[in-house]
Amino acid sequence: MKPRVSIPSPDFKYVPAVSTDVARTFARIRREQRQRAEQQRLADAANALIRAAAANDAASSWRPSGATNHGSGPGVCPLGGSGQRAD
Fold it and tell me: In which region does residue 64 sit, left (phi positive, over 0), alpha (psi from -120 to 50) or beta (all else)?
């Protein structure tokens, strides 16, 4: 949006109504509104992802007392292997 310029300001340029294109002005305004709505939608989606990641990090870092981080049973390697030896 253009900043408003005061009438006494030397930067003010009068445009007669006959020289304006109302349809073009409304088309520009609708385009700007769509762009702002899209930017807001993207920002909301990014914020939702950030909140979900933060909640996931908080949930995965919590461990009940006495719990260990040694995998979930026999044959499971926390580093991604199968836990079995290659003979």
Answer: beta
